[in-house]
Design a protein that fits this description.
This protein has two domains: about 725 residues, TonB-dependent receptor, beta-barrel domain (Maltoporin, Chain A); about 80 residues, no CATH class. It is built from eleven helices and 37 strands. The strands form six sheets. The protein has a 22-stranded antiparallel barrel. Strands 3-8-9-6-7 form a five-stranded mixed sheet. A four-stranded mixed sheet has the order 23-24-28-27, with helices on one face. Strand 6 and strand 7 form a beta hairpin.
Amino acid sequence: MAYRSTLLASACLLSLSAMPATAQIAPVGVAPDEVAETEAAKPPALGDIVVTGSRVGRSRLETLAPVDVIGASTLTRQGTPELGAALANVAPSITFPRPAITDGTDSVRPATLRGLAPDQTLVLLNGVRQHSSALVNVNGSIGRGSSAVDLNTIPVIALDTVEVLRDGASAQYGSDAIAGVVNLRLREARSGGGITSSIGVYSTDVKTARIPNGYHRNDGANYSVAGWQGFGIGAEGFVTVSAEYIKREPTSRGDLDPRVTTPRITSRFGDPEVESEAVVINAGIPLTSDLDLYGLGAYQHRYSESAGFPRLENNINNTNIATGRPIVPGGFLPLIGTTIDDFTVGGGIKGDVSGFNVNANVTYGKNRLHFSTLNSLNGSLGASSPRNFDSGALSYDQLTAGLDVVRPIEIGLDKPLALAFGAQFRREGYAIEAGELNSYVYGPDRGGGRAAGAQLFPGFRPSNEVDRHRNSYSLYADLDAPLFTGFDIDVAGRYEHYADFGSTATGKVAARYDFAPAFAIRGAVSTGFRAPSLQQQFFTSTAINFLVINGVSTPVDVVTFPVADPVARALGSQPLKPEKSTNLSAGFVFHTGGFELTVDAYHIKIRDRIVLSENILGSAPGTPGASATAVAIYNLLNSTGSTQTYGGGRFFINGVDTTTKGVDIVARYRFDTNGLGRFDLNAAINLNDTKIDKLPTTNQLSSLPVPPALFARVNQLTFEKGTPRQKYVLGTDWSNAGPFSATARLNIYGSVLVPQTSAALDYETGTHALLDLEGRFKAGDHFTFALGAQNLLDAYPDQTPAAVNSTGAIAYSSYSPFGFNGRYVYARVGITW
């Protein structure tokens, strides 16, 4: 409450401050020294022109729905090179947790908008739908069951601005835009360029439940170099090339492992080791006086290496069955190597055709993840087991072809009416490739609980291989009409048809009324949807559990089944249908002189959310102590005539209904002082609350003596309390007439619940404030030097209690909305020409 009171008091003081007539408002995310060159050319209180959420360009403060415009300088003037983390540091409605020991999710971290699922936010690249990651999050992280766009595949250096539309927009853009839209707009330049190089390290004091006095770490060293160059083509054309290289060492924040004779840290719980290279090309050239040809290409190669739970020397999978001695003396820490190749290529023609503004485009993108399990063992192969394994791959690709047409129509008011319509075709593909035999085989050294496949991440089997595709097409119309002076209304409708589940239609009505130049109200009502992804429909993997069958410990398959698999159908699986939403929003805009304030409330009702079920485990008839329900589940699992024996399974299912409501408050004030320079102050709040209204069931499982939960306590509470219910951002940019400038930012995250199997073991991450500071010195016209610290005060989430952390591996929760790495200090040098 103290943080909230402080923030509200600060906002009140800002609104009551005297506002000099010379005050100018900085566009959101644009640093003061960049604004000076462009202020004379744009209205001082309205700022950037926004293209997201409207078929006509509007200034940021004239939009019918709230849009944050985050400039390149705001993203680059931070310690992190990750786009997802950089956005979360400045946008109050975005969080970017840093899960660890969660397999592939360590390498493809999910970002959330307004606490909803990562795949309920649509991501655009230059206004065109960006392809998602091939990874579906199937472990215990925020966003479990989702498959979203990997924001970190686009280097920050390549961006001009990022527009975050905080409103439902499915009627305008199609599937996924339930929480909102993130539009990544690439840099456009005919000349000039620059190179930025940075180096940083975590320097932190770590205090855990078993090490209350703490220990010091210097790790996670980060080296990056990024640059861009603009080239002119003819009189007006351009090609802008951007490139980035990042090398990041891992971090480790484990607790003492009480299982070893002399307790020590046996885990590597933290950020993975990462090395990546990326290049982005953005181009445009006039074909005629009315038509332009444009195109883009982006490619990233990234290798990430993260750790799993440590295997101690006496682990059964580390025991030589012939000698009884450990295969790897001292035990081993298995690693997952994830190689990501992501590319996008696209282009089109846009311009005026007989009074119609036409944009025709085609884009193709693909994301592939190849997994290696390293420093591990397949215990069932005994001492002959290799230590490193090829564990298979996932891939997703998307071809999108679109036509957008806008016709401005003069109706005698200060703004023309705009009629927009268009069509889109999309083809998607998803594939799973098997790993090498040793990565999944159940070898000759069976028994005693030894598992099949490589420890930590068994490879995909040939039975898991899939190669699926689907097509969809859509038609839309959008009318943006000023009905009379000061009152605008936008009406949009969209029809989409998918080859796998059929058709859906969505609509939106948004309106705005300007009572005066300084004050307006706005609101919207819309319906939205998210199509079930191919990843959710067809992902499958297999693990081995052991059941006592006829008195013998017997290996059985526990499978993540595709929804159409006969075994999943026996448990009650149905073809997935789209999630559907109803979005309501209302707010106001106030701006005068150098001050602006926006307040927007929202209410989002989502039906039939798609989730990954719990493991539905059975017991064979005759198993000692087996319940009637467990035996009935076993019989259902093995009722299809398959030659395999199944001990359990899970699958994706519709049926979770939720209600999310909250409010976004954003205030900014810019003023000049005599002698001290210019200050850009901002304060932002996101208050958010999600409640579950309905849980999924199946007829087959509901009829059992004690129906198993398809979506149990931990996952329910993760939906409701796994992201902060409050997030506050306070910041200021300072510059003077000389070479010095600085940025200060305070992020305050509300507490997050970390649910366990019982309420007695639940704990929270706590409310914490992170202070970021950066100072800059400009030497001449071309060189800039910066020193900074993120999380200067070395804040950590509350510790994982020892009672929960029985192995000592997880000292903090991966649910923490700001991670658990501590203080990061960095230096940066930039050269421009």
